[in-house]
Amino acid sequence: MSAYFTVGLGPNAESWNASRGLVAWVVNVLAEHVRDPRLAATLRELAEQRYWLVGYDLIEPEQAPDLTRAVLEDLMPAAEREFADQPDIVEMVADLVKMVDDWWQSQNG
Fold first, then answer.
1. 20-33 vs 37-49: helix axis angle to the nearest 10?
2. pTM
3. What is the pLDDT of residue 72?
């Protein structure tokens, strides 16, 4: 089954589509790397429930920089370790990282 990770805030948010298992893995990794304990708890709950829609739309706007930092700094190294023998999965995660980077750059010039 598919799940979506929304990138961005509001009606113009884009969605990254992957299996629920991969989206839950991404969210768990991010929960390990964000600095805000409330955000980490929210992410863990979302991953545990395996919601079909997770991401920026389900966090507080002031938590977006922390989530973005974790995506840009921590997600690819974790994916490369976890899925070293599955380059297609690593590429999918790289697509998410690029979406987040592009969105963040568009918001912060």
1. 160
2. 0.92
3. 98
